[in-house]
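Q: Please design a sequence for this.
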């Protein structure tokens, strides 16, 4: 409760303070839109132009609100911001994150405008003062106008061709950053661990020992693949995105690929565990073929033949070594 005492209730604000709060909110939103535009400008120039326009729209609304304040209350605008008011709508600090996709940025901008409009309308309904009620209604209408203006800006700057190009660029970045390293990791984890896991299984016929070997092989391969991917390319020139993201995708999927056929050896019965592990291997190899077909545009049967053939050879090698 002590924390709340340092914040004003929205219901206790004067008309001048409500107007000052609206002015500072418009200024903050303009800065957020400009940060989005700066982030998108190189890769998505059409969307960057939309956010530049939305920032300019916020500037015009702020200027109109300042003129209204000057007319009603004079030149001195009280210093009051969102964080000073309990219950006032807040902006999630997502614009600080460097990992937002184009779709996430577009969605967040739409949420910003909608949230502001809804808040002003609710506040207007609760107000008993006619002048304050009118002011809040005007602010709600202004926010609704922002959404209309944003739609016009998108129509002006984002033609169907431009939008298609940006969506294609976003899809390509997603594939290069997440799918490609993850697929490489899944293939490595699923195939490279076959030999040590099944060699241990048939050599010892001890499910717990086999599980420990599989766990060690999977985790070790995941760490190795993750660091290798992250260190191989910083993504600046190649456009493959953050090395940390790629390293995580590769490392995690490598570990998952190996654990898939190591976990069945938690089953005490050797032959049941081995049967389940073989079924998991088949499912993993078909999943790899499907991902190659879905995201890498590799013909499904060619991908399936390559993956299944490679997996079968490694599996056979493990069984032969273990049986010998």
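A: Design:
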């Amino acid at each position: 409760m002590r924390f709340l005492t340092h914040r004003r209730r929205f219901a206790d604000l004067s008309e001048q303070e409500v107007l000052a709060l609206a002015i500072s909110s418009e200024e903050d939103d303009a800065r957020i839109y400009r940060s989005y535009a700066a982030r998108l400008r190189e890769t998505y120039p059409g969307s960057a132009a939309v956010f530049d326009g939305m920032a300019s729209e916020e500037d015009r609304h702020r200027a109109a609100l300042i003129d209204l304040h000057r007319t009603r209350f004079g030149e001195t605008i009280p210093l009051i911001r969102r964080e000073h008011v309990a219950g006032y709508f807040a902006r999630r600090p997502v614009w600080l994150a460097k990992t937002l996709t184009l779709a996430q940025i577009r969605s967040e901008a739409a949420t910003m405008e909608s949230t502001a409009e809804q808040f002003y309308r609710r506040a207007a309904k609760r107000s008993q003062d006619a002048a304050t009620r009118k002011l809040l209604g005007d602010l709600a209408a202004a926010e609704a106008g922002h959404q209309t203006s944003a739609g016009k800006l998108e129509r002006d700057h984002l033609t169907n061709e431009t939008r298609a190009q940006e969506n294609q660029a976003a899809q390509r970045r997603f594939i290069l950053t997440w799918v490609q390293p993850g697929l490489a990791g899944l293939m490595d984890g699923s195939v490279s661990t076959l030999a040590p896991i099944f060699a241990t299984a048939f050599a010892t016929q001890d499910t717990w020992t086999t599980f420990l070997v599989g766990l060690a092989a999977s985790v070790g391969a995941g760490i190795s693949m993750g660091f290798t991917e992250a260190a191989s390319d910083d993504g600046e020139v190649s456009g493959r995105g953050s090395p940390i993201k790629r390293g995580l995708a590769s490392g995690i999927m490598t570990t998952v690929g190996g654990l898939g056929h190591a976990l069945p050896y938690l089953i005490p019965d050797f032959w049941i565990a081995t049967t389940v592990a073989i079924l998991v291997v088949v499912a993993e190899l078909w999943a790899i073929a499907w991902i190659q077909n879905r995201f890498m545009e590799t013909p499904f049967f060619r991908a399936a033949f390559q993956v299944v053939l490679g997996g079968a050879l490694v599996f056979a090698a493990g069984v032969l070594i273990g049986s010998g």
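Q: Thanks. Anything notable?
A: The chain has a mean pLDDT of 80. The first helix runs from residue 15 to 40.
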